[in-house]
Every structure is written in structure tokens, then in C-alpha cells.
Amino acid sequence: MSNYKTLVDVLIKDELAGVPRHEQVLFLGQTPEYLVKRAGFPDLNLAIKSSVIIKSCFDHGIANSLLKRVPEIILKPKCVFRSANPELTDSVVVLTFEVKGASPIIIPIRQNQQVGRNSYFNLVSSIYGKDGPDPFEKWKNLGF
Fold first, then answer.
1. Are 79 and 140 in contact (CB under 8 A)?
2. pLDDT at 144
3. CA-to-CA dists, residue 30 to 42, 45, 72, 122, 132, angstroms
4. Does residue 132 come out as left (phi exceeding 0), alpha (psi in the -120 to 50 range) or beta?
5. Which one, 3, 9, 23, 93, has the greatest CB density within 10 A?
6. Which three-class secondary structure state does DSSP give residue 121?
7. Percent of the chain residues past pLDDT 90, beyond the cut
8. Are 89 and 46 in contact (CB under 8 A)?
């Protein structure tokens, strides 16, 4: 994962220098077993697009240090919920133990996403602090 951490630093540095690299795909490792066995994800590599890292950092205010730990954070979730969006039946939301201020950090992941012509990944689609109260009890009660 040290290569991933180095790439996060490079992407953020390049973005600040006005040389964006939004088309790169960064590998996070194999999809965690809990997503394969419990959420029905295919056993593919887990990845994140550089544009998601940039948006998470500059638009959502997620610290570089947290972004570099995403592979480890995903391995130890607080809970996993299916997406509340009925159009995203291929998606789960990983509720993490991490916080941004008082807001829990969530990481939506979509399964079996095509990147390029012939590559498929389980893809992190965002990283952000969920505003408002901790959604754990609400989502649990709604059956997500």
C-alpha cells in the first residue's frame, strides 16, 4: 500500500500545482471478504479514481492523512449498509469509525464497474463526512 500512499501525495501536489491527473486509477487491493461474502460483490480488485481522491480532499475536506489510510479503513468498517438510492442496487455505503469534525466518514463502493475498455473493479465512488447526526441507528432501523 505504500505505492498508493505515495500516489495520493503526488495527486494532491499536482492538483495544487495546476497539473491535474483525474483519469488515473489507484488500486486499493483485493475487495474485502465481507463485501464478497455478505454484500455479493464479485471478487475483483478494489480501486479508486484519482478524481475521487481530489474531490474528497478539496471539495469534502478529507485530510490527506485519512485518504492515505483508505485501504486500511475499508478493511475495518463500523458497519456496511446498502445504498438508500433505489437506482444504485450495485452499491453499498461503508460507515467508518473515522470522523470529520463530528460527522462520520462514509465510503460508498460500487461493484463491478467498468474502467476503460476491458477493466472491471469494485470502485470507491466517494469519501465524505456525513452531515448531521450519526446515521447508524437511522439506517439500521430503516433496514439499509
1. yes
2. 46
3. 10, 4, 12, 9, 32
4. left
5. 93
6. strand
7. 73
8. no
Residues 6+ apart with CB under 8 A from 92: 35, 39, 41, 80, 81, 82, 83, 108, 109
* Interval 29-86: pLDDT, tens: 999 999 999 999 999 999 999 999 999 999 999 999 999 999 999 999 999 988 877 7
- In this predicted model, what pLDDT tens digit does every residue of 53-67 receive, in sequence order? 999 999 999 999 999
What residue spans define the domains of the chain?
Answer: 2-142
Looking at per-residue pLDDT, the higher value among 60 and 22 belongs to: 60
Residue 45: enclosing H or E segment and its boundaries?
strand 45-49
Q: Which amino acid is at 136?
A: F
Cα(51)–Cα(55) distance, integer angstroms: 6
Spatial separation of the C-alpha atoms in residues 56 and 72, rounded to whole Å = 17
Helices (H), the chain: 2-16, 33-37, 50-58, 64-67, 70-75, 136-142
C-alpha cell at 10: 503526488
